[in-house]
Amino acid sequence: MTNVLAVERLGKKYGDTVAVQDVSFHVARNEIVGLLGPNGAGKTTTINMILGVLEPTSGSIRIEGVDVAQQRTKALEYTNFAAVYAPLPGNLSVYQNLRVFGLIYGVAGLQKRIDALLEQFQLERFRDTKAGVLSSGEQTRLCLAKAMLNDPHLLLLDEPTASLDPATAHEIRAKIQRLASDGACGVLWTSHNMYEVQDVCDRVLFLSRGKIMLEGDPKTLPQAHGKETLEELFIAVARE
Amino acid sequence: MNLNRTSAIVIRHLYLVSGSPARMLPLFAWVAIDMVLWGFITKYLNAVSSAKFDFVPVFLGAVLLWDFFTRVMHGVTMAFMEDVWSRNFLNLFATPLSISEYVGGLVLSSIGTSAVGLFVMIILASTIFGLSFLAYGMALVPFLLVLFLFGIALGILGAATVLRFGPASEWFIWPIPALVSPFAGVFYPVATLPRWMQYMCFALPPSYVFENVRAIVAGLEVSRSGLTIGVVLAIADVVAACWIFVRVYRHSVRTGLIARYSAETVT
To answer: Structure pTM?
Structure first.
């Protein structure tokens, strides 16, 4: 498996405050990696640096071998993201949002791609509805549809199922798993739902106080550290 | 520079304007009111003035040209503010969109919205109040060019200010044309001003436009050197505004302000 994302000795300081310190990891093609950690551990800071909206203090980020600091545009053409804290503009309709972002990502055959995504994420009946009046679950589906527009090689998902009901969350998880296994995509996934992480992720990274504390298979990692469940391990790492 | 990405910013603005009467109306309503108000003021001044001086091309023409500059500036700022109001920075700047493509999109959006205002003003001023642009001759081209470029420069500078100091600083931006107008000699010759204000005038590209408007109406020659200085100054202002915007953007990426823009400051 080749790496779609390679993060080397990444660091971010705000004055004297260290947000992320010496973090190195990779995401391989067809792999779903969970980025776990308590609030304020540095997960979103790490994702923001990968997305090029936050400049690292040290280290490097390569997406498909392209350095984000040196060739930001090229690197981000391979990437897309969905996050609960980044809803799409509520004053544009579902279709308008997808068209605008489709143009920005340079999607070929955009009209067909939008139609396919509207169907895939069950958004057809909201095609001309303003994004701002959608329910939070529908908005999440729209964000995910946007995140799939350019068939990304690297998909960053920050708590993608946080506002979805269990049935829809299950469907979305299945879609993303299919995307990772069938396509050329690697996924970096953050979630506080340890059952979801165990179900979806091939590998997890535990981040605490800006450092990676543990790394491994979410199905075997708890037992390897004398814990019953991933949630127990999470609590133990967070309290260290 | 990728034209598809630039066009995405323009199309986004087109969607917003075409779908919202609250955005559509200001494109022409305020300039139309200005034309009617100043049209009648100039008619009245022509009626009561004993001098054989036509106030229409001087005052109404000046208001029209100044309103055009204001629309251009506000066009850029308004397109930028849409991303502030809809908290769209993270979505936009985490894409392959470059700063030049983004600013290019804001400028093209402004060309569209300001052209609507200019068209409405020309129709009203010429049909109701008899303002003829033929009176300005070919000088009208550099007049509009200087005001357009200066409007773009101040619009980009306004966007940089809001990006740097947060959404609340938009209230610094909207009154900028009103603040600049006393120094730009819009309604009176630069010589009317005290010396210190005249120095400021010479640094402002629009002052070269309005000095020439009055020269043409008075039957004098257009100052080619004055207009050249105006064009050069306006281009320099655009370059300086773009440089400032890029610096502010890089500062925002370095400090994390782009990702947490609603906080207004990260310190």
So the answer is: 0.92
Residue in A closest to B267 by C-alpha: A14
**CB distance from B96 to chain A under 8 Å?**
yes
Taking residues B164-181, report their average pLDDT.
91
ipTM of predicted complex: 0.91
pLDDT value of position A165: 85
Domains of chain A: total: 2
- Decide if A83 is inside a domain: no
Judge whether B14 is closer than 8 Å to chain A, CB to CB: no
- Using the Cβ of B18 and the Cβ atoms of chain A, whether some distance falls under 8 Å is answered with no
pLDDT of B266 > 70? The answer is no
Q: Is the pLDDT of residue A23 over 90?
A: yes
Domain that holds residue A32: 3-78+153-239
Distance CA A13, CA B183 (A): 45
Say if residue A228 is in the same domain as residue A112: no
Q: How many CB atoms lie within 10 A of CB B211?
A: 20
CA-CA distance, B205 to B219, in Å (whole number)?
22
- Give the separation between CA B263 and CA A56, rounded to whole angstroms: 20
In a domain, A84, yes or no: no
If asked whether residues A98 and A202 sit together in one domain, one would say no
- Same domain? For A144 and A158 the reply is no
Based on the domain organization, do A71 and A184 belong to the same domain? yes
Question: Cβ contact (<8 Å) for B8 and A86?
Answer: no
Q: Are strands A203-208 and A211-216 parallel, antiparallel or unpaired?
A: antiparallel
Give B95→chain A minimum CA distance, Å. 6
Which residues of chain A are within 8 Å of residue B5 when distances are taken between CB atoms?
103-104, 106
| Residue A188 pLDDT | 96
Based on the fold, state whether residues A44 and A98 are members of the same structural domain: no
- Domain definitions of chain B by residue range: 3-263
Q: Are residues A57 and A13 in the same domain?
A: yes
Q: Which positions in chain A touch B247 (Cβ < 8 Å)? A: none
Is B12 within 8 Å of A100 when comparing Cβ atoms? yes
Q: Is the dihedral of CA A112, A176, B87, B244 positive or negative?
A: negative
CB neighbourhood size of B145 (10 A): 17
A15 and A74 in a single domain? The answer is yes
Nearest to A103 among B8, B88, B91 (CB): B8
Quote the minimal CA–CA distance from B255 to chain A in Å. 7
A68 & A95 share domain: no
Cβ-nearest to A106 among B4, B91, B256: B4
Tell me the pLDDT band of A88, cut-offs 50, 70 and 90. very high
Q: A3 to chain B nearest CA, in Å? A: 20
Of A153, A12, A157, A51, which is closest to residue B92 (Cα–Cα)?
A51
When the pLDDT of each residue in chain A is averaged and rounded to a whole number, the result is 92
